[in-house]
From TrEMBL, chains A, B:
Domain of life: Bacteria
UniProt cross-references to SUPFAM superfamilies, sorted A to Z: FAD-binding/transporter-associated domain-like (SSF56176), FAD-linked oxidases, C-terminal domain (SSF55103)
A GO biological-process term: respiratory electron transport chain
Similarity field: Belongs to the FAD-binding oxidoreductase/transferase type 4 family.
UniProt cross-references to InterPro entries, sorted A to Z: FAD-bd_oxidored_4_C, FAD-bd_PCMH, FAD-bd_PCMH-like_sf, FAD-bd_PCMH_sub1, FAD-bd_PCMH_sub2, FAD-linked_Oxase-like_C, FAD-oxidored/transferase_4, Oxid_FAD_bind_N
Protein name: FAD-binding protein
Keyword Flavoprotein: yes
Keyword set, alphabetical order: FAD, Flavoprotein
An annotated Gene Ontology molecular function: catalytic activity
Residues covered by the FAD-binding PCMH-type domain: 42-223
Amino acid sequence: MTETKASIADKRDALSAALGDDLVLTEADDMARYCTDWHGDVTSGAVAVIRPRSTADVQAAIRICRTLGLSIVPQGGNTGLVLGGTPDEPESQIVLSLERMSRIRNIDSDDFSAVVEAGCILAQLKDAIAEKGMFFPLALGAQGSCHIGGNVSTNAGGVNVLRYGMTRELVLGLEVVLPDGSVFDGLSTLRKDNRGVDLKQLFIGAEGTLGIITAVSVKLAPYPDHAATALLALNSLKDAITLYRRARRDCCDLMSAFEFLPPLAFTLAKEAIPDLPIPLRADYPAYVLIEISGSGLVDIDDLMQRFLEGVMESGLVVDGTIASSSSQARNLWLIREGMNEGQAKRGTHMRTDISVSLSQLASFVADAEAAVKQALPDCISVSYGHVGDGNVHLNVMPPNGATPEERHDRIHKAKTVVNAVVDRYQGSISAEHGIGRLKRKDFEERLSDTKRRLLIAIKRAIDPDLLFNTHCQINLGAVIDEPD
Amino acid sequence: MTETKASIADKRDALSAALGDDLVLTEADDMARYCTDWHGDVTSGAVAVIRPRSTADVQAAIRICRTLGLSIVPQGGNTGLVLGGTPDEPESQIVLSLERMSRIRNIDSDDFSAVVEAGCILAQLKDAIAEKGMFFPLALGAQGSCHIGGNVSTNAGGVNVLRYGMTRELVLGLEVVLPDGSVFDGLSTLRKDNRGVDLKQLFIGAEGTLGIITAVSVKLAPYPDHAATALLALNSLKDAITLYRRARRDCCDLMSAFEFLPPLAFTLAKEAIPDLPIPLRADYPAYVLIEISGSGLVDIDDLMQRFLEGVMESGLVVDGTIASSSSQARNLWLIREGMNEGQAKRGTHMRTDISVSLSQLASFVADAEAAVKQALPDCISVSYGHVGDGNVHLNVMPPNGATPEERHDRIHKAKTVVNAVVDRYQGSISAEHGIGRLKRKDFEERLSDTKRRLLIAIKRAIDPDLLFNTHCQINLGAVIDEPD
């Protein structure tokens, strides 16, 4: 024990000597926020937190960590939900925070592109782009804190995926520092470039296991200055899916969000935001929050009006309200966001991030909720999500007075129950949040031999010494230590 | 020589014995069309052409080829433009044609997805999908012959990229047979699936160097039953780019094509299709073919009308014609297609497939055409392409009476001249056609050390024995034979 401590102190000294005190944090208090996850559920420690100011600093950090045998956990805004950016071995890992590399290098509205450093906060990037009349479509709850580099590393999703795609589809180019310390300079803004294997794809969604993303070039769209938002009540989730299909056709490519909510959303939102106005009766079986948006000559309000007339006339939508101002639209979105806060206020609960095929979404939710009800009759399921992507967050809340142990037990059981239904539907246990350390075991259990072999072969090819984000995604350490 | 011939005959016998005569062609006449490229420019031979009927057949073919030390050149519809799907070593390669694996496994309009075998002809897939009221957006000149598997392997582009993206963005899942004979089963139709590194991305655009794609699942959109097409005349290519920016904003995400053409397009199209109606004066400096399309409630004709009123009033567009029927629209597109045929009729010429950033497209074309004019005053440049993607096909035609040797000499010089301008603009020498064998040297010369090392590491990791598509993209043989 004394030996390890001494050795950690030596390593800290060596890091400071190599990189300068300005880049290196080693005090427990200073490191705490980098070593605790977004939900505050899991706290660990690290040998140090390194905060580079430049790509060259990242290269220097990798070199000294390699020499000292330290593994590197890259971290963006630390808003991940699967423990991919926080350390789990305090004596052998450092956290590399990109927060100081936050410069927007260029926004070119003539070229529909922007180039930005990894540590730029998403909302700041979106705002700077909007000031130039342009739009960066990535939109998620954490956008006031998350970094664009983390978004790319985790291939973040969010509410606009159905129109604009996941982060992957918004990336034009990347600058990445590799485990050997060299820089992959792929920071092009070309929209079409078909020169061989597209290497940057490897780093998108790899959660820092193959490289450290230091800068990103992204696609922009014209700013959609017209938006129409409506909250609609329906008789079932099945009807919500029918409505989605109709909306896709009727509104063409102009639908930018289509979220479904259960009636419980209103109760939960009110618990978080007591004075939030609820503009509809709260006892319909299902609700949809829909947004249509666009720029230029298309009359978005008229399109929403005619769409709603049609679907109300056909009986598919039984009640609804259109926001008549942007503040009303904001309040409708606050129901969606407040629902999440309300769940958090009720205490630790099981969160999932599931996708199934769109045509099976309604029956999946019915089956999974029934399975939870049978196995855990005192728990409450709440399912909501991005219908058009087949993405549902089916969360399970233990009863209000449950002790931490009881909660832990319920959450553990609920996960097993729900994952079994996901497997039956050939769904994904991670539609948008990634794998990180939290879902690694569940991920590994579901990997085919071929996929596992490929993942290991690629990791070995790029990071043979397992320097980057060990224990994230798959536990390569254990595998690679085996004889061939 | 006798020894080699004997050995080839032995290998042919071994292939037939292992796979059955039905799968194996070995007669030169039978193999000719598989060993000659789309343009008929380059003819080679092969030990055999293998035509599997199933994924299991592909696995069996790989096993026997491995035993015999034969390298495998996968081939789709053989419409590639860069010699990626035709052999170049008659005594050590076999062609693996996917043409018999052409079944559409499923079209699910409720799920906005389809699953199809690699050898299905793109136009047949598009038609079958259209019959179900759905739309597969990939659209290119070769669609009557090319295969979906080849489209994915080459990450094909085409005229609808600006709205729907390259093939990569249309792929939901892949089934791939790997060099070790195992099957990567990633044929999911999930729209969101963020479980770790997205392995399928490796095979998209790899031109068969890492795996043989045997089936594909793709994203569908609602069929755009309304389309408006117009041909517009402008004072310059620069104005065409300004027009594109305005169209992106005014028509929001409903613009599906925006092609620019030079005045020479009409002459060339007439040479190929003498009775083609030309609805505009043919002496303006630049032309644009624009298509707006959509389904449902958006009034596309009205949108086109109002857009054109605005841009003609502002003087940006100086003349124009809107197709008033689908046959008129077809005729406008025939100008675009006839222009290509007309170039082919004038004899062998230099074809390019360049991208630069959108904001630099006009000055790039001016600079590159001027450089060609200076170096090769007797040649004619013709530049056209997909403006919104920054993609220009700048082709150079030798004078009409040139001998084959003179043509070859002009083409060689023109390539050097144009590529130098591409490099100055940090553009791509392959925006959509890929690298294949034709552009390998030009590609390799422009690779950074880091990218080269990564490409080699990945190839080594997945295909250590260099079984798949040797000499395509990079000449790994030469590199891997070197001592480390």
